[in-house]
Structures
1.
Amino acid sequence: MESSEELFFIDLATIRKATNDFSDSNKLGQGGLVLCTRVG
């Protein structure tokens, strides 16, 4: 059976730029090992 799932990767530099270097002002929440940030 074939899978239609695709994986893609985003480099860290792109993520840092999109989240303003993981700025606390973009932080939406945190739990366990996950940090959720707003992009933009």
Note: The helical segments are 12-18.
2.
Amino acid sequence: MSRAAKATLIGSVLVSGLTVWGVHFMQTKEREVMYRGVQRDEARQAEKKRQRQLDLELNQKREEEYQKMQPTAASSTTTAAAAAGSGS
């Protein structure tokens, strides 16, 4: 085999190897970035759920206070619905 052929073979093997390694490296980094996005979404959803639960509890307390001051006919159905909804 001539010197030029050996150099071409070695060069093409190196370029191919570096290309495969580069693609693998890029895929690994992309996967990490995508997973961090999933983690951010889960944290955002958990915070939103926590905030909604706090709002629900606050509204239930307010409704109880208002019902003590001025009971309404709908208070029995609203209280029953709130009690059924808070069981989960």
Note: The chain has a mean pLDDT of 89.
